[in-house]
Amino acid sequence: MNFPRLQAAAWLELGLDAAQATQAEALAAELEAQGFLLIDHVRMLPLEVGGDHAALTLQLLRDLPPGITHFILHPARDTPGTSHALSGLRGPGGEQGGFCPRGAGA
Fold it and tell me: What's the whole-model pTM score?
């Protein structure tokens, strides 16, 4: 089971409303009481940051605290298909991001 051990405030930061956050915190406590291993931390590549996502990802991984972390990222090679699919999703500098610059291998 992939379920994070988070306080209600952290659930709120992830987009849950107050009732959902309280319910999620209680569910985590119940699952842990039943012996399930829970995720200690949730991290994701910040979508609002442009530039070198590979270097940023490595730094985020280096900075992880001890414990089980669910790390959310979606690396993709820049191909005509991904460029088309992500055409409306540009970073703050106008780039599409990713881990491979345009034209870097197939």
Answer: 0.60
22: helix, strand or coil: helix
Dihedral class, residue 105 (left if φ above 0, else alpha if ψ from -120 to 50, else beta): left
Nearest Cα neighbor of 28 from 55, 46, 47, 10 is 10
Q: Nearest Cα to 37, choosing from 7, 13, 9, 67?
A: 67
Which residues pair with residue 72 across a beta bridge? Answer: 44
Quick check: 70 and 10 in contact, CB under 8 A? no
Distance CA 24, CA 6 (A): 8
CB-CB contact of 51 with 93 (8 Å): yes
Q: Which string of b and e fits 74-96 if b means at least 16 CB within 10 Å?
A: eebebeeeeeeeeeeeebeeeee
* pLDDT < 50: residue spans in the chain: 92-94, 96-97, 100-106
Res 20: pLDDT: 97
Q: To which H or E segment does residue 60 belong?
A: helix 53-62
